[in-house]
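In this section we walk through a basic example: taking a raw amino acid sequence and producing a predicted 3D structure, encoded as discrete structure tokens. The instruction is simple. Fold the sequence below.
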Amino acid sequence: MIPAVVYAIPAFVLLVVVEAVSYRLLPDDEERGYEMRDTVTSMSMGAGSQVVAVPWKAATIVLYAAVFTVAPWHLSASSGWTWVLLFFADDLAYYAFHRAHHRVRVLWASHVVHHSSIRFNLSTALRQSWTPMTGLPFWLPLALLGIPPWMILLQQAVSLVYQFFLHTERVDKLWRPVEWVFNTPSHHRVHHGSNNVYLDRNYGGILIVWDRVLGTFEPEGERAVYGLTKNIGTYNPLRVAFHEYAAAWHDVRAARRWRDRAGHLFGPPGWAPAAAPPVTAGRPG
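The resulting token sequence is shown next.
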């Protein structure tokens, strides 16, 4: 089975070229635009993710199908209500997946790839993880709801294609009702910002309403500084893909207590054990 998003790749590449040319013809001093090494790295990460996706999608279909067979009911793909349910269920699953991957370090190690560029353009959307396995638990419940596996995979592809267009500085804020309901380039610029006020905000996929309801929404205000709070300073795809796993493993090995090892894996990124209180010698009696 060929992942549905593969069919959109030629359009993705063409639009990256169009946006890059737009910076040549209509430069903006406040927008960082493109840099060749950064773009090549983003596209390399995207190509690698599609290679990994081929066997992983096959395994995913088997797992979805296994859960689907034990679902208490099976929803019909011919019903419009099934598609409505799928749209909202998939978007909520994406919100949960995205939020967890920012708040749990072992999951962040997979997702950090997408945030590793200090630029924000359409090529950044292609900078995808080579370890997509961490997303499986968030979508399995949809199969248990009785939604056919092929529909789940299709809606995931639709969401991914939609999110491609969010990665641009060339689009300003949209009509207010659109900004209130949908995820937009303005909202997603906030998500990619390393500014303190923007950290862990705007997790939405297609919709932004989950962020508004669950308290993780932040409107675009100050100019976003893209990248990580501590940038990795490399264009090597292998280091981009696995640097956080290596850093987490280093911290786990250096920890002396099991609870600290667990904290380095399951705590938020940047977690560190509390400093031990100073030892004060007792006065002689």
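Looking at the output, two observations stand out. The chain has eleven helices and no strands. Residues 73 and 146 are 5 Å apart (CA to CA). In the next section we compare this with other chains.
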